[in-house]
Specification:
The protein is of the alpha+beta class. It has helices spanning 5-14, 20-60, 75-84, 123-129, 151-157, 196-201, 207-213, 233-244, 253-256, 258-296, 298-306, 311-342, 344-355, 362-365, 376-402, 406-411, and strands at 64-67, 94-104, 106-109, 112-114, 117-121, 135-138, 146-150, 164-168, 183-191, 202-206, 222-227, 249-252. Strands 1, 2, 3, 4, 5, 6, 7, 8, 9, 10, 11 and 12 form a twelve-stranded mixed beta sheet that branches. The longest helix is centred in the first third of the chain and has 41 residues, at 20-60. The radius of gyration is 32 Å and the shape is elongated.
Protein backbone atom coordinates (compact mmCIF):
# COMPACT_ATOMS: atom_id res chain seq x y z
CA UNK A 1 0.00 0.00 0.00
CA UNK A 2 1.58 3.34 -1.07
CA UNK A 3 2.18 5.99 1.55
CA UNK A 4 -0.04 9.11 1.52
CA UNK A 5 1.89 11.96 -0.03
CA UNK A 6 1.92 13.83 3.33
CA UNK A 7 3.97 11.03 4.92
CA UNK A 8 6.13 10.64 1.79
CA UNK A 9 7.12 14.32 1.87
CA UNK A 10 7.47 14.29 5.66
CA UNK A 11 9.96 11.38 5.57
CA UNK A 12 11.85 12.98 2.68
CA UNK A 13 12.30 16.24 4.59
CA UNK A 14 13.48 14.34 7.67
CA UNK A 15 16.25 12.46 5.86
CA UNK A 16 19.63 13.43 7.31
CA UNK A 17 21.41 15.82 4.98
CA UNK A 18 24.56 17.84 5.35
CA UNK A 19 22.59 21.05 5.73
CA UNK A 20 21.78 23.35 8.60
CA UNK A 21 18.15 22.17 8.61
CA UNK A 22 19.20 18.53 8.73
CA UNK A 23 21.52 19.20 11.65
CA UNK A 24 18.78 21.01 13.58
CA UNK A 25 16.40 18.11 12.93
CA UNK A 26 18.89 15.62 14.36
CA UNK A 27 19.48 17.90 17.36
CA UNK A 28 15.71 18.10 17.94
CA UNK A 29 15.45 14.30 17.98
CA UNK A 30 18.44 14.11 20.35
CA UNK A 31 16.86 16.74 22.61
CA UNK A 32 13.62 14.77 22.89
CA UNK A 33 15.61 11.57 23.43
CA UNK A 34 17.67 13.08 26.26
CA UNK A 35 14.59 14.52 27.96
CA UNK A 36 12.71 11.20 27.80
CA UNK A 37 15.83 9.29 28.85
CA UNK A 38 16.35 11.40 31.98
CA UNK A 39 12.67 11.23 32.90
CA UNK A 40 12.58 7.44 32.41
CA UNK A 41 15.53 7.14 34.81
CA UNK A 42 14.63 9.73 37.44
CA UNK A 43 10.90 9.06 37.90
CA UNK A 44 11.25 5.28 38.55
CA UNK A 45 14.15 5.95 40.94
CA UNK A 46 12.01 8.42 42.88
CA UNK A 47 9.16 5.89 42.89
CA UNK A 48 11.63 3.31 44.22
CA UNK A 49 12.65 5.61 47.06
CA UNK A 50 8.97 6.22 47.80
CA UNK A 51 8.26 2.50 47.98
CA UNK A 52 11.36 1.89 50.10
CA UNK A 53 10.29 4.52 52.64
CA UNK A 54 6.80 3.00 52.83
CA UNK A 55 8.24 -0.47 53.37
CA UNK A 56 10.47 0.77 56.17
CA UNK A 57 7.56 2.59 57.81
CA UNK A 58 5.38 -0.52 57.56
CA UNK A 59 8.19 -2.70 58.84
CA UNK A 60 8.64 -0.78 62.09
CA UNK A 61 5.24 0.78 62.79
CA UNK A 62 1.78 -0.66 63.20
CA UNK A 63 -0.51 -0.65 60.19
CA UNK A 64 -3.40 0.65 62.32
CA UNK A 65 -3.37 2.43 65.69
CA UNK A 66 -6.37 2.23 68.03
CA UNK A 67 -6.42 4.76 70.86
CA UNK A 68 -8.57 7.17 72.85
CA UNK A 69 -6.04 9.98 73.32
CA UNK A 70 -5.52 8.85 76.92
CA UNK A 71 -4.21 5.70 78.59
CA UNK A 72 -6.08 2.52 77.68
CA UNK A 73 -6.53 0.84 81.03
CA UNK A 74 -8.62 -1.92 79.44
CA UNK A 75 -6.30 -2.47 76.46
CA UNK A 76 -6.24 -6.26 76.86
CA UNK A 77 -10.02 -6.57 76.80
CA UNK A 78 -10.35 -4.31 73.75
CA UNK A 79 -7.62 -6.27 71.95
CA UNK A 80 -9.34 -9.55 72.77
CA UNK A 81 -12.66 -8.19 71.49
CA UNK A 82 -11.04 -7.23 68.17
CA UNK A 83 -9.34 -10.62 67.85
CA UNK A 84 -12.53 -12.53 68.52
CA UNK A 85 -14.65 -10.46 66.14
CA UNK A 86 -14.75 -12.33 62.83
CA UNK A 87 -18.11 -11.06 61.62
CA UNK A 88 -16.61 -8.59 59.09
CA UNK A 89 -14.51 -10.06 56.31
CA UNK A 90 -12.08 -7.14 56.39
CA UNK A 91 -11.48 -7.53 60.11
CA UNK A 92 -10.62 -11.19 59.55
CA UNK A 93 -7.50 -9.92 57.69
CA UNK A 94 -5.98 -8.84 61.02
CA UNK A 95 -2.81 -10.70 61.92
CA UNK A 96 -2.22 -9.35 65.43
CA UNK A 97 -3.59 -6.86 67.95
CA UNK A 98 -1.22 -5.99 70.77
CA UNK A 99 -1.02 -3.24 73.44
CA UNK A 100 1.78 -0.75 73.04
CA UNK A 101 3.53 1.80 75.24
CA UNK A 102 5.36 4.64 73.54
CA UNK A 103 6.71 7.98 74.67
CA UNK A 104 9.87 9.96 75.47
CA UNK A 105 12.26 8.85 78.18
CA UNK A 106 15.45 10.32 79.63
CA UNK A 107 18.39 8.00 78.95
CA UNK A 108 21.84 8.30 80.53
CA UNK A 109 24.79 6.52 78.94
CA UNK A 110 28.35 7.21 80.09
CA UNK A 111 27.34 10.59 81.55
CA UNK A 112 25.57 11.52 78.30
CA UNK A 113 21.89 12.35 78.35
CA UNK A 114 19.51 11.81 75.46
CA UNK A 115 15.73 11.76 75.10
CA UNK A 116 14.78 9.03 72.62
CA UNK A 117 11.34 7.47 72.32
CA UNK A 118 10.71 4.39 74.41
CA UNK A 119 8.60 1.72 72.71
CA UNK A 120 7.23 -1.19 74.72
CA UNK A 121 6.06 -4.16 72.66
CA UNK A 122 4.97 -7.74 73.26
CA UNK A 123 6.77 -10.91 72.18
CA UNK A 124 4.14 -11.44 69.49
CA UNK A 125 4.82 -7.97 68.04
CA UNK A 126 8.54 -8.76 67.90
CA UNK A 127 7.71 -11.81 65.79
CA UNK A 128 5.19 -10.03 63.53
CA UNK A 129 7.53 -7.08 62.86
CA UNK A 130 10.41 -9.45 62.16
CA UNK A 131 12.76 -7.57 64.50
CA UNK A 132 15.17 -10.49 64.58
CA UNK A 133 15.95 -9.81 60.90
CA UNK A 134 16.77 -6.16 61.69
CA UNK A 135 19.35 -6.97 64.35
CA UNK A 136 22.92 -5.81 63.67
CA UNK A 137 24.18 -7.49 66.80
CA UNK A 138 22.66 -9.26 69.78
CA UNK A 139 19.15 -10.71 69.92
CA UNK A 140 15.62 -9.35 69.67
CA UNK A 141 14.34 -11.53 72.51
CA UNK A 142 13.59 -9.28 75.48
CA UNK A 143 13.38 -10.08 79.16
CA UNK A 144 12.74 -7.87 82.17
CA UNK A 145 14.86 -4.68 82.16
CA UNK A 146 16.36 -5.47 78.75
CA UNK A 147 16.35 -3.08 75.84
CA UNK A 148 17.09 -2.85 72.10
CA UNK A 149 18.83 0.25 70.75
CA UNK A 150 18.86 1.75 67.24
CA UNK A 151 22.18 1.58 65.41
CA UNK A 152 22.63 5.36 65.15
CA UNK A 153 21.67 5.91 68.77
CA UNK A 154 24.15 3.20 69.79
CA UNK A 155 26.87 4.83 67.69
CA UNK A 156 26.24 8.30 69.13
CA UNK A 157 26.17 6.95 72.68
CA UNK A 158 29.06 4.50 72.14
CA UNK A 159 26.88 1.59 73.21
CA UNK A 160 27.60 -2.09 72.69
CA UNK A 161 25.61 -5.22 73.45
CA UNK A 162 25.90 -5.92 77.16
CA UNK A 163 26.25 -2.27 78.22
CA UNK A 164 23.94 -0.79 80.84
CA UNK A 165 21.88 2.38 80.42
CA UNK A 166 19.81 4.33 82.92
CA UNK A 167 16.21 5.05 81.88
CA UNK A 168 14.02 7.62 83.61
CA UNK A 169 10.34 7.78 82.74
CA UNK A 170 7.98 10.76 83.05
CA UNK A 171 6.57 9.36 86.29
CA UNK A 172 9.86 10.22 88.02
CA UNK A 173 9.33 13.91 87.16
CA UNK A 174 5.82 14.22 88.58
CA UNK A 175 5.36 15.74 92.06
CA UNK A 176 4.70 12.82 94.37
CA UNK A 177 5.26 11.62 97.91
CA UNK A 178 7.00 8.55 96.51
CA UNK A 179 10.44 8.78 94.97
CA UNK A 180 10.67 6.97 91.62
CA UNK A 181 14.22 5.91 90.96
CA UNK A 182 15.71 5.58 87.44
CA UNK A 183 15.98 2.05 86.11
CA UNK A 184 19.17 0.37 84.95
CA UNK A 185 18.55 -1.63 81.77
CA UNK A 186 20.89 -3.87 79.79
CA UNK A 187 21.35 -3.53 76.06
CA UNK A 188 20.77 -6.97 74.52
CA UNK A 189 20.57 -5.97 70.84
CA UNK A 190 21.19 -3.23 68.29
CA UNK A 191 18.75 -2.94 65.37
CA UNK A 192 18.90 -1.16 62.02
CA UNK A 193 15.73 -0.33 60.09
CA UNK A 194 17.43 1.89 57.49
CA UNK A 195 15.23 4.82 58.56
CA UNK A 196 17.25 7.44 60.42
CA UNK A 197 14.36 8.60 62.61
CA UNK A 198 13.91 5.08 63.99
CA UNK A 199 17.60 4.13 64.20
CA UNK A 200 18.57 7.29 66.08
CA UNK A 201 15.56 7.97 68.26
CA UNK A 202 14.04 4.72 69.56
CA UNK A 203 14.55 2.26 72.38
CA UNK A 204 12.57 -0.98 72.33
CA UNK A 205 11.77 -2.94 75.46
CA UNK A 206 9.23 -5.47 76.65
CA UNK A 207 5.71 -4.23 77.29
CA UNK A 208 5.91 -5.02 81.01
CA UNK A 209 9.16 -3.08 81.45
CA UNK A 210 7.73 -0.10 79.55
CA UNK A 211 4.55 -0.15 81.66
CA UNK A 212 6.69 -0.08 84.78
CA UNK A 213 8.81 2.83 83.48
CA UNK A 214 5.65 4.80 82.67
CA UNK A 215 3.85 3.61 85.83
CA UNK A 216 0.87 2.39 83.83
CA UNK A 217 0.09 -0.67 85.97
CA UNK A 218 -1.06 -2.83 83.07
CA UNK A 219 -2.33 0.00 80.86
CA UNK A 220 -1.19 0.97 77.38
CA UNK A 221 -1.03 4.09 75.25
CA UNK A 222 -2.69 2.43 72.27
CA UNK A 223 -3.24 -0.83 70.42
CA UNK A 224 -1.13 -1.77 67.43
CA UNK A 225 -2.98 -3.66 64.70
CA UNK A 226 -1.05 -5.53 62.02
CA UNK A 227 -2.86 -6.78 58.91
CA UNK A 228 -1.98 -9.09 56.02
CA UNK A 229 -2.07 -6.37 53.33
CA UNK A 230 -1.00 -2.93 54.63
CA UNK A 231 -2.41 -1.22 51.54
CA UNK A 232 -5.91 -2.33 52.61
CA UNK A 233 -5.57 -0.56 55.95
CA UNK A 234 -8.36 1.90 55.06
CA UNK A 235 -10.89 -0.92 54.66
CA UNK A 236 -9.88 -2.57 57.92
CA UNK A 237 -9.88 0.79 59.76
CA UNK A 238 -13.41 1.53 58.51
CA UNK A 239 -14.60 -1.83 59.84
CA UNK A 240 -12.87 -1.23 63.17
CA UNK A 241 -14.50 2.19 63.54
CA UNK A 242 -17.90 0.59 63.06
CA UNK A 243 -17.00 -2.16 65.55
CA UNK A 244 -15.50 0.05 68.28
CA UNK A 245 -17.76 3.09 68.04
CA UNK A 246 -17.06 6.83 68.07
CA UNK A 247 -15.20 6.79 71.39
CA UNK A 248 -12.15 5.10 69.86
CA UNK A 249 -9.69 6.77 67.50
CA UNK A 250 -8.58 4.54 64.61
CA UNK A 251 -5.69 5.75 62.41
CA UNK A 252 -3.94 3.99 59.55
CA UNK A 253 -0.24 4.20 58.78
CA UNK A 254 -1.11 6.21 55.68
CA UNK A 255 -3.05 8.79 57.71
CA UNK A 256 -0.28 9.10 60.30
CA UNK A 257 2.33 9.75 57.58
CA UNK A 258 0.10 11.74 55.22
CA UNK A 259 2.40 14.79 55.25
CA UNK A 260 5.44 12.73 54.34
CA UNK A 261 3.66 10.98 51.47
CA UNK A 262 2.24 14.29 50.26
CA UNK A 263 5.72 15.82 50.23
CA UNK A 264 7.09 12.83 48.29
CA UNK A 265 4.29 13.11 45.73
CA UNK A 266 4.87 16.86 45.30
CA UNK A 267 8.61 16.29 44.90
CA UNK A 268 8.01 13.66 42.22
CA UNK A 269 5.59 15.90 40.31
CA UNK A 270 7.88 18.93 40.52
CA UNK A 271 10.79 16.83 39.22
CA UNK A 272 8.60 15.63 36.34
CA UNK A 273 7.66 19.20 35.36
CA UNK A 274 11.23 20.51 35.68
CA UNK A 275 12.75 17.74 33.58
CA UNK A 276 9.97 18.10 31.02
CA UNK A 277 11.54 21.48 30.23
CA UNK A 278 14.35 19.60 28.44
CA UNK A 279 11.76 18.31 25.97
CA UNK A 280 10.31 21.82 25.68
CA UNK A 281 13.73 23.17 24.65
CA UNK A 282 13.97 20.44 22.03
CA UNK A 283 10.44 21.35 20.88
CA UNK A 284 11.53 24.97 20.29
CA UNK A 285 14.35 23.64 18.12
CA UNK A 286 11.86 21.49 16.21
CA UNK A 287 9.57 24.48 15.72
CA UNK A 288 12.41 26.61 14.34
CA UNK A 289 13.45 23.75 12.03
CA UNK A 290 9.97 23.41 10.57
CA UNK A 291 9.61 27.18 10.13
CA UNK A 292 12.91 27.15 8.21
CA UNK A 293 11.64 24.32 6.01
CA UNK A 294 8.40 26.25 5.34
CA UNK A 295 10.40 29.30 4.26
CA UNK A 296 12.80 27.28 2.10
CA UNK A 297 10.04 25.23 0.46
CA UNK A 298 7.61 28.08 -0.20
CA UNK A 299 7.54 27.51 -4.00
CA UNK A 300 7.11 23.74 -3.53
CA UNK A 301 4.21 24.34 -1.11
CA UNK A 302 2.63 26.70 -3.66
CA UNK A 303 3.02 24.05 -6.37
CA UNK A 304 1.33 21.41 -4.17
CA UNK A 305 -1.61 23.69 -3.46
CA UNK A 306 -1.89 24.66 -7.16
CA UNK A 307 -2.04 20.94 -8.02
CA UNK A 308 -5.02 20.48 -5.68
CA UNK A 309 -3.53 19.76 -2.24
CA UNK A 310 -5.80 21.09 0.50
CA UNK A 311 -4.52 23.32 3.34
CA UNK A 312 -5.16 20.45 5.76
CA UNK A 313 -2.97 18.11 3.69
CA UNK A 314 -0.16 20.65 3.49
CA UNK A 315 -0.37 21.28 7.24
CA UNK A 316 -0.41 17.52 7.79
CA UNK A 317 3.08 17.23 6.27
CA UNK A 318 4.59 19.36 9.06
CA UNK A 319 2.42 17.90 11.86
CA UNK A 320 3.59 14.46 10.73
CA UNK A 321 7.19 15.67 10.97
CA UNK A 322 6.62 16.75 14.56
CA UNK A 323 4.97 13.40 15.34
CA UNK A 324 7.86 11.42 13.85
CA UNK A 325 10.43 13.47 15.79
CA UNK A 326 8.43 12.76 18.95
CA UNK A 327 8.18 9.04 18.17
CA UNK A 328 11.87 8.65 17.34
CA UNK A 329 13.06 10.71 20.31
CA UNK A 330 10.68 8.92 22.70
CA UNK A 331 11.61 5.45 21.42
CA UNK A 332 15.38 6.04 21.67
CA UNK A 333 14.98 7.79 25.04
CA UNK A 334 12.81 4.99 26.45
CA UNK A 335 15.23 2.30 25.34
CA UNK A 336 18.27 4.13 26.69
CA UNK A 337 16.49 4.94 29.96
CA UNK A 338 15.49 1.30 30.57
CA UNK A 339 19.07 0.18 29.90
CA UNK A 340 20.43 2.75 32.38
CA UNK A 341 17.83 1.67 34.96
CA UNK A 342 18.83 -1.96 34.53
CA UNK A 343 22.53 -1.17 35.06
CA UNK A 344 22.08 1.79 37.45
CA UNK A 345 24.00 0.26 40.35
CA UNK A 346 26.88 -0.88 38.11
CA UNK A 347 27.07 2.65 36.66
CA UNK A 348 27.18 4.17 40.16
CA UNK A 349 29.90 1.72 41.20
CA UNK A 350 31.95 2.61 38.13
CA UNK A 351 31.55 6.32 38.84
CA UNK A 352 32.72 5.70 42.41
CA UNK A 353 35.85 3.96 41.11
CA UNK A 354 36.57 6.76 38.64
CA UNK A 355 35.96 9.68 40.96
CA UNK A 356 36.63 8.16 44.36
CA UNK A 357 33.41 9.74 45.65
CA UNK A 358 30.45 7.59 46.64
CA UNK A 359 27.05 8.76 45.44
CA UNK A 360 25.21 6.90 48.18
CA UNK A 361 27.19 6.29 51.34
CA UNK A 362 25.85 3.26 53.18
CA UNK A 363 26.78 4.70 56.57
CA UNK A 364 24.53 7.69 55.88
CA UNK A 365 21.65 6.32 53.81
CA UNK A 366 21.68 2.70 55.09
CA UNK A 367 21.37 1.24 51.62
CA UNK A 368 24.07 0.51 49.08
CA UNK A 369 21.94 0.18 45.94
CA UNK A 370 19.66 2.65 44.20
CA UNK A 371 16.04 1.50 44.39
CA UNK A 372 13.81 1.76 41.33
CA UNK A 373 10.18 0.98 40.66
CA UNK A 374 8.98 1.05 37.06
CA UNK A 375 5.32 2.08 36.94
CA UNK A 376 3.86 1.63 33.43
CA UNK A 377 1.49 4.57 33.98
CA UNK A 378 4.47 6.90 34.55
CA UNK A 379 6.22 5.70 31.39
CA UNK A 380 3.06 6.17 29.32
CA UNK A 381 2.68 9.69 30.74
CA UNK A 382 6.27 10.56 29.82
CA UNK A 383 6.01 9.19 26.27
CA UNK A 384 2.62 10.76 25.53
CA UNK A 385 3.73 14.11 26.97
CA UNK A 386 6.84 14.15 24.76
CA UNK A 387 4.82 13.33 21.65
CA UNK A 388 2.13 15.91 22.45
CA UNK A 389 4.79 18.61 23.00
CA UNK A 390 6.38 17.79 19.63
CA UNK A 391 3.00 17.87 17.85
CA UNK A 392 2.09 21.21 19.45
CA UNK A 393 5.50 22.60 18.43
CA UNK A 394 4.77 21.68 14.81
CA UNK A 395 1.37 23.41 14.74
CA UNK A 396 2.73 26.95 14.22
CA UNK A 397 4.75 26.14 11.06
CA UNK A 398 1.99 23.78 9.89
CA UNK A 399 -0.67 26.50 10.17
CA UNK A 400 1.62 28.96 8.37
CA UNK A 401 2.13 26.51 5.51
CA UNK A 402 -1.57 25.70 5.26
CA UNK A 403 -2.57 29.37 5.04
CA UNK A 404 -0.22 30.22 2.17
CA UNK A 405 -1.69 31.77 -0.98
CA UNK A 406 -0.57 29.53 -3.92
CA UNK A 407 -0.13 32.47 -6.31
CA UNK A 408 2.10 34.44 -3.93
CA UNK A 409 4.02 31.26 -3.04
CA UNK A 410 4.78 30.54 -6.70
CA UNK A 411 5.98 34.13 -7.30
CA UNK A 412 8.38 34.01 -4.33
CA UNK A 413 12.09 33.74 -5.07
Amino acid sequence: MPLPFEWFLCLRYLRPKRTFVGAITVISILGVMIGVWILVVVIPVMAGFDQMIKEKLMGFNAHIIVSTGNVLWDADSIAEAIRSDATAQSISAIESVEPNVIGPALVETRQRFQVPYLKGISDNTIEVLGLEELMVSGTAQLDWDEVLVGVDLAKDSELLVGDTITVTGPSALRPSDEIVLPRDMRVVGIFQTGFWEFDSGFLIMGIESAQDVYDLSGGAHHLEVMIADPYKADLVARALRERLGPGMRVETWMERNARLFSALAVEKNVMLYLLMSIILVAAFGLCSTLITIVVEKTREIGTLMAMGASPAQVSGVFVAQGLIVGILGSAFGLGLGLIVLDYRNEIVSQMRRWTGVGLLEKDIYHFSEIPALIIPKDLVTIILSAMVICIVASLIPAMRAGRMDPAQALRSS
